[in-house]
Amino acid sequence: MSRTREITEAGLFAALIAVLIIASFYIPVLGSIMAMFLPIPVIVLTMKNKPLYAIASAVVAMILAGMVVTFISSIALGGMALLVGVPMGISMKYKNKNLVTLLVGSISAAVGFLIIFSMIEFTTGVTLIQTIEESFKMSMELQTGLTSAVENLGVNTDASLVEAQKLLDDMLFLMKLVMPAIMMVMAMVYSAANLVFSHQILKRLNIDRVPLGPFDQFRYPKHLAYGSLGMMLLAIVLGNFKLIDTQLISANLAYLFAAIFSIQGMSLIYYWMKKRTGKASGIVLIVLLTFLGMIQYIAFLGFFDVLMDIRKFEKKQNGT
Fold it and tell me: pTM value?
């Protein structure tokens, strides 16, 4: 590809990213979805051209969008696209495994989130925790208002108000406790969504890449299970020696454990249901179990599948 064509292509992608940033800022619901997938154009451009062109394209897009929206918003949205898109694009370009690309994207997204939250705190003086506390306070005020309205009708609601206050306090405490794990899971979901959808775009553009396998065959490497178990045991030992805050570490590890291994658990359930009753029933069952709050059980199923490879054992039993 000639340099002129590369520059032209980078300019077109810069315009596309700028439009997406502006749309993300002004369109209420659809804009949030656009913001989620902003790294995709950067990934595609990194795959097609040199990473330098992708970086230059994203920077130009931030400058162009900053003329229409606030520069803080432009830098935040464009910066996330750049921080996540370029590393993931490079990883995919060098034909790394998709799990490696996901790890690269997750770390990049986590760094991006930290930078954005720091920018918000620096410019507004409001931290993420304060924002969460304020939202819980507003929820409690709304609950109090509804309770007062019901009491005016002659209904005694003192007990329910106390229970609601306790529930909100417990939820706020839990949110603060597992905030690091929540940010990491958000980063993984963000990078996973961009990985999946970027593959669809690359496929249509006939750009060579390591294909995604079917979901029913998804598996983590065994050392992930061993590493997770080792981290939990290490946390318990260090906690017994009062070297770390056991409650904080255990809560975050448990949250990450459920989020990570539930994916393989869902894959195993989908594999079983697909063989017996079809794809649709597998999706319905996974959604139902998730809404029933059984993620932890799905995660334990996934954890044991990583260790024992239940699907491989079942295939041997069936002689396939």
Answer: 0.83
